[in-house]
Design goal:
There is one protein chain. This protein has about 1000 residues and is mainly α. Among the domains are: about 110 residues, no CATH class; about 35 residues; about 50 residues; about 50 residues, no CATH class; about 120 residues, Arc Repressor Mutant, subunit A (Orthogonal Bundle); about 100 residues, Arc Repressor Mutant, subunit A. It has 47 helices and 6 strands. Strands 1-2 form a two-stranded antiparallel sheet. The protein is flat.
């Protein structure tokens, strides 16, 4: 491939020059206009000049470098980043500095194309964006005829007339004094553009674009008094933003003012930015996080740092729920992503009621119910970073029963204690970052509504020396077991017992009071035992987590909260007030200067004093007796005293000084068999197993041998774990017996594991001597159907056909397998086994010659055929069907939509013509067919030229009823269709032979 030709006349691009300016200079060097040069260089056609610096592909630039003999990548400095945000610079115009144009001899800078370059820091003047004469953008459209005019000339045509021709280097400029605010803003923009990485410049430009519409409305003329008269007039000449002016380009003065005002917002410290935004928001107050004048799309385009500053500035104006959702009171304020899963993930790690320590810290001393606050606080923890603006849709996942007063409660709390909102945000952030140590959602799904049973509760109380209380069925009010279940369920899952949908919910205010009174009555040992039970329950559920957990106290560092830390309470003083002085928790809270909630949680850390229960009739005393019985009355003890020595349980109870009922209970617990009558007959276990399993003896035979009842043997087998054979025929000896391996296989297959096998073999041996089953059944004095069934069973058991069935006068005869079976049955050994197995009334002697002769004579006699049964619902006469009839019917059905004649049917089926004629006449007489002679026209038409017409054809077709009858017969005899006459073997049924004449 040859290298591309290089332009003979070339111009090197100047530093900072734009591609369109360089192409224009290149065209002047060759005496060509810019469009003509672009055609020669094969550059893509563009309508506006700006597309030369923003819309060319990299491969176009590389090719242009080769044509102009420039190093690869050199032209990248002459174009702008295509991803640069343009914002309100809707029109493709380019600014310019007249003095720079003059010094550069008409070469245009690339930076002038940028929307936020509005001043020349070299000459300290505002840039121009319009021609001073025609007031249009001089480089909006691609310049034509530029080689005919001096550089830096306005080439816009005025009303289809000549070009404007104004020398742009002579345009008057607005001079800015040194240190002017607009020059400082331009220095800030230039510094961003001079960096190697333009990511920050892109972010700043995008934020500038998003703030433009808002600032055009928010900036007042009084804010511009220090910028000079010319700048203020430039601001006032710009029309206010509206639907009609929203696409108009901004003048350099307006862009400079916007950049100056927004500079502290985007480039200053957080404090400076927040102060600047608040001053601007005061011009147009609003409760929305976004300032008035910034639409939804502009608000969404703001960068995360800008969002954070805007939200923090609007914190005091926003609704309390929005402040929490957007975390505007914290340095981490931000607008959540639309699809943010944070609150959904956080839900798994939030209990339904607030942790005790944080309840004490965040709850006000008065003005709000404790249960409502704890539930509401957990619901509020779901709001930070939540994109859903309707709080009920978020909190209903945790507390569907809560009322819609969430905003009122939060506003009331934050009015008195504003740091509570910051604490909630910190807690939510901690859960998002560390995911919490407990997955409460999994526990809510897995922990059963009754985490401890009454029996386990009793054992736990007895082990700790406390009373369990009454069971649920015996108590008139809520028993202690229910309170213990509530305590455990709340401990494990953080459940809200005030939720009416909860299975353990409080039924009334009095029920809640009883639960709160139950908690201080738990001793430390009892509480520790409950915690141990809870950990064991978590292990059984496969949950490897801590029993309880709370976010660390560091989340409240530096905050002024309503309450003190949970540990900041004098437990000794609390114990003395409540237990020694017997004063109420409310009085203790008043004396200790804290809340009753703080006191109640403190009492749980103290625990009640254990009591000594001395009554012999208490449940605790009964439990202690049972524990003593478990220690003494072991399985070895009962084996020695009860089984071997034969002592009664009453005697054993007296000897060990225990109640007889507890002794019986322990005997049942160790699996001892208690006899309430005489002791059973001893049976050796190994002997019983051998007789029943190995020798296959029935329980009745075994019982007869040892002198007991059949059911006694069966009970003993059940205790030994021996599977019993089904009662009835399956346990009979004839079923379980096995023949010797010397007996032929077919005989064993017919006899073993079945009833009456020998009887079937005996009858089969006799029946094969007769010509058919009818004569054999007469000799055996049984029904023919019974013989048929029995012989089918023989064939099933053996797995082979044993005899060919008789057909009319042809007698039945054994198959090879049947003949082999008859030879085996004729052996003396087999005959002896058969005679031993059959009863005398079942054995029949072999037939003599006279009986066989009489049977053969009877088999040869044929009974006259009876009349055929008429069709059911088919109005034709029924005829006897032969193989030829089936073939003919199949052919007629295959051509039911047309008439056929005899020779045609003969050719298709291969049947002889005489057979076809006879069968057609039979079907016609029975009403199955219709026939008609060939008409004269057809008859004469098919006659040869030199011969007469010959015989007429007779056409046949099935009647509707005949068609139904044919379908019925073919369906009933479908198996006979597989064996057609030999003449039709060359074609399918109803098909045409390969070489059969028609006609």
């Amino acid at each position: 491939m040859t290298a591309p030709r290089v332009l003979p006349l070339r111009v090197a691009p100047l530093p900072g020059e734009s591609l369109d300016s360089w192409l224009e200079a290149l065209g002047r060097r060759s005496g060509l206009s810019l469009p003509a040069l672009m055609d020669i260089l094969r550059l893509p056609r563009v309508l506006t000049t700006r597309l030369l610096v923003t819309g060319l592909e990299p491969d176009v630039l590389r090719n242009l470098e080769r044509v102009t003999d420039l190093p690869e990548g050199r032209l990248d400095a002459l174009v702008l980043d295509p991803n640069l945000p343009w914002g309100p610079q809707r029109q493709p115009r380019c600014c310019f500095c007249p003095k720079c144009l003059k010094e550069r001899e008409g070469h245009w800078l690339l930076r002038w194309w940028l929307p936020w370059v509005f001043a020349c820091t070299t000459h300290q003047v505002l840039l121009h964006d319009l021609c001073p004469r025609c007031h249009t953008a001089p480089r909006r459209h691609l310049p034509r005829g530029n080689h005919l005019h001096p550089p830096a000339t306005c080439l816009r045509r005025i009303r289809s007339g000549p070009v404007c021709g104004t020398d742009l280097t002579t345009a008057p400029s607005t001079v800015l004094p040194a240190g002017h605010a607009l020059l400082q803003a331009q220095h800030w923009i230039d510094d961003l553009l001079d960096r190697h990485d333009l990511a920050e410049a892109h972010t700043v430009f995008s934020d500038l674009n998003a703030c433009t519409s808002w600032l055009q409305r928010a900036i007042r003329t009084t804010d511009l008094e220090d910028l000079g008269t010319a700048v203020v007039e430039g601001w006032m000449r710009q029309p206010p933003p509206s639907l009609q002016t929203r696409l108009q380009a901004l003048s350099p003065a307006v862009r400079g003012i916007i950049a100056h005002i927004v500079r502290p917002v985007l480039a200053g410290t957080d404090a400076e930015a927040i102060d600047a935004i608040r001053r601007l928001r005061q011009q147009q107050p609003t409760a929305s996080p976004a300032p008035r004048g910034m639409d939804f799309h502009q608000w969404r385009r703001l960068s995360a740092p800008a969002h954070r500053r805007f939200l923090r500035a609007a914190d005091s104006d926003m609704r309390s729920l929005d402040r929490l959702r957007l975390r505007s009171a914290t340095p981490h304020a931000g607008h959540p992503a639309v699809s943010s899963p944070l609150s959904t993930d956080r839900l798994r790690h939030v209990p339904q009621v607030l942790w005790p320590g944080w309840t004490v810290r965040l709850m006000p001393h008065a003005g709000i119910d404790e249960d409502y606050f704890r539930a509401m606080a957990c619901a509020l923890l779901l709001l930070p970073r939540e994109p859903q603006r309707t709080p009920r849709e978020v909190t209903d996942r945790l507390h569907p029963y809560l009322s819609g007063t969430m905003a009122v409660v939060l506003r009331r709390i934050t009015r008195m204690h504003p740091d509570v909102l910051i604490a909630l945000c910190r807690l939510a952030d901690h859960l998002d970052e560390h995911q919490g140590a407990i997955d409460y959602q999994r526990r809510r799904d897995l922990v059963p509504p009754e985490p401890i049973s009454y029996e386990a509760w009793k054992q736990l109380c007895f082990a700790t020396g406390t009373q369990p209380g009454e069971s649920l069925s015996q108590s008139a009010q809520t028993p202690r077991i229910v309170q213990a279940q509530r305590y455990l369920h709340h401990l494990l899952t953080g459940s809200d017992l005030a939720d009416p949908a909860h299975p353990l919910a409080w039924q009334s205010a009095r029920d809640r009071s009883r639960y709160l009174a139950f908690l201080p009555t738990l001793t430390l040992d009892q509480r520790h035992a409950l915690h141990t039970h809870a950990r064991a329950l978590l292990d059984r559920l496969g949950i490897a987590e801590a029993l309880t957990w709370e976010p660390p106290e560091q989340c409240a560092a530096g905050l002024s909260l309503p309450g003190r830390p949970l540990t900041d309470i004098n437990l000794d003083a609390l114990k003395h007030i409540v237990f020694a002085e017997q004063r109420t928790p409310r009085e203790a809270a008043r004396e200790l200067g804290t809340t009753i909630t703080h006191v109640r949680f403190g009492l749980e850390r103290i625990g009640a004093e254990p009591q000594e229960w001395t009554s012999r009739h208490s449940p605790l005393a009964s439990w202690r007796l049972r524990k003593r019985a478990q220690t003494i009355l072991t399985a070895e003890f009962f084996e020695r005293e009860y089984t071997q020595q034969g002592k009664a349980l009453a005697q054993i109870a007296k000897e060990v000084d225990l109640p007889r009922g507890i002794v019986i209970e322990q005997a049942n617990a160790v699996g001892l068999t208690i006899y309430y009558s005489r002791r059973p007959v001893p049976i050796d276990e190994n002997w019983l197993r051998e007789q029943y399993l190995t020798r296959k003896r029935s329980t009745y035979d075994i019982a007869q041998e040892i002198g007991t009842e059949d059911e006694t043997v069966r009970r003993r087998l059940r205790r030994l774990g021996v599977p019993l054979r089904p009662q009835g025929v399956h346990s009979r000896t004839v079923i379980t017996a096995k023949l010797d391996r010397s007996v032929p296989r077919d005989v064993r297959a017919a006899v073993e594991a079945t009833l009456h096998g020998w009887l079937r073999l005996h009858r089969f041996q006799i029946a094969m001597a007769f010509p058919n089953l009818a004569t054999a059944s007469a000799y055996l004095a049984c029904e023919r159907k019974a013989l048929t069934t029995q012989f089918k069973r023989l064939e099933t058991d053996i797995g082979h056909t044993l005899y060919y069935r008789s057909v009319q006068t042809r007698p039945h005869r054994p198959t090879l397998r049947g003949h082999s079976l008859l030879q085996a049955l004729a052996r003396p050994q087999i005959q002896k086994l058969m005679n031993d197995a059959l009863t005398p009334d079942q054995i029949r002697p072999q037939p003599d010659a006279a009986s066989l002769a009489e049977a053969k004579a009877a088999a040869r006699r044929r009974r006259p055929r009876g009349p055929l049964a008429p069709f059911d619902g088919i109005a034709v006469e029924r005829i006897r069907i032969h193989q030829e009839t089936l073939t003919l019917l199949n052919d007629l059905l295959s051509h039911a939509d047309e008439e056929s004649y005899g020779a045609q049917i003969h050719a298709r089926t291969g049947l002889s013509q005489g057979t076809v004629s006879d069968q057609l006449r039979r079907l016609q007489r029975a009403g199955w067919l219709t026939s008609r002679p060939e008409d004269d026209v057809s008859w004469r038409t098919r006659a040869p030229a030199t011969r007469g017409p010959g015989r007429r054809r007779t056409y046949h077709a099935l009647t509707p009823e005949g068609r139904r009858a044919a379908e019925h017969e073919l369906q009933q005899r479908s198996t006979q269709l597989t064996s057609l006459p030999a003449a039709a073997a060359g074609s399918e049924i109803g098909g045409m032979p390969h070489s059969a004449p028609i006609g």
